[in-house]
User: Fold this.
Amino acid sequence: MSVLAEIAVFPMDKGASVSQWVARVLSVIQESGLPYQLGPMGTTVEGGRAEVMQVADRCLAALEADCDRVYMTLKVDLRKGPVGRMAGKVASVEARLAGS
Assistant:
């Protein structure tokens, strides 16, 4: 079973630039050891369901300590089958574009 999750977490009470808090969240994701891909609007993480949900919870906790309001979006794609779907999904679309 493979879970892909796109996680976006940031404080709503720290002004217009929140990159320092996003970097803190990304450190949590890196420390998990799960494969991930940083994007401009969120970070995609791949792993088992329990592992991914624990990472999402730790991301919230990382900002909870010194932020009064934290916003999080979490999109999850759970699928039976192999891991490595994060790269595979992108490659599949790129291959179709190259063939058109």
The longest strand covers residues 2-11.
